[in-house]
Amino acid sequence: MKNYILFLSVFLFVFSACSKNDADKDDNKNCEAYYEGPDCETRQTAKFEGEYTGTFDGFNYNKKEITIVQDLAKINGLRITFINAAINAELTSSKAFQIPEQDFDYDFNSTIEGTGALENNSISISGQIYVPEQGTNSPEQTIDFQYDGVK
User: Fold this and answer.
1) Rounded to an integer, what distance in angstroms lies between the CA atom of residue 44 and that of residue 93?
2) Whole-angstrom Cα distance, residue 119 to residue 96?
3) Short-list 121, 105, 123, 102, CA closest to 113
4) Which of 22, 60, 100, 116 has the fewest Cβ atoms within 10 Å of its own Cβ atom?
5) Strand partners, 142
6) CA pair distance 90, 99, nearest whole angstrom
7) Angstrom distance (rounded) from CA 142 to CA 124
8) 111 and 129 Cβ atoms separated by less than 8 Å
9) How many angstroms separate the CA atoms of 105 and 127, rounded?
């Protein structure tokens, strides 16, 4: 009987320890929106920050680097700088963002919009740049682009 009680006590102890560890793993799911980590104090935007080197497809642009920083005024906001212009982006999940349509100081009152995703240290951004008509020699254009880079 003592062996049975001892066995039951050990079993319950191990079972409760395993249940506690499983609960700790799920704590991240209870974080406020756009926060993560064991203490829910890390902004999800933090992992996007950095300088990336990669390639642009869709238009001729020699510079291969982009910079991403957190937009501290907006909990899910990012600022992406490339082609000598900064654009706003917003997280849509912990690994993805959207670039809402906005003015883009690339050239001639252009606008830009798109989406992006982060996987480990690799980033992928795709979108469109709209360039309005600039007279008879320069009709309206839509430029589709793709950027793939790594930190």
Assistant:
1) 9
2) 9
3) 102
4) 60
5) 130
6) 7
7) 20
8) yes
9) 15
Written as tens digits, the pLDDT of the chain (151 aa) is 555 554 555 555 544 444 434 444 444 578 999 999 999 999 999 999 999 999 888 876 667 889 999 998 899 999 999 877 889 999 999 999 999 999 887 666 889 999 999 999 999 999 998 888 776 666 778 889 999 999 9
Nearest to 102 by CA among 69, 80, 122: 80
Kindly give, in sequence order, each residue whose CB lies less than 8 Å from that of residue 41, ignoring residues fewer than 6 positions away. 35
State pTM to two decimals: 0.73
> What kind and span of H or E run contains 132?
none
User: DSSP letter at 134?
Assistant: -
Both tokens of residue 139?
Answer: 């009709």
| Cα(149)–Cα(85) distance, integer angstroms | 18
Report the C-alpha gap between 115 and 103 in whole angstroms.
16
**Contact between 110 and 12 (Cβ < 8 Å):** no
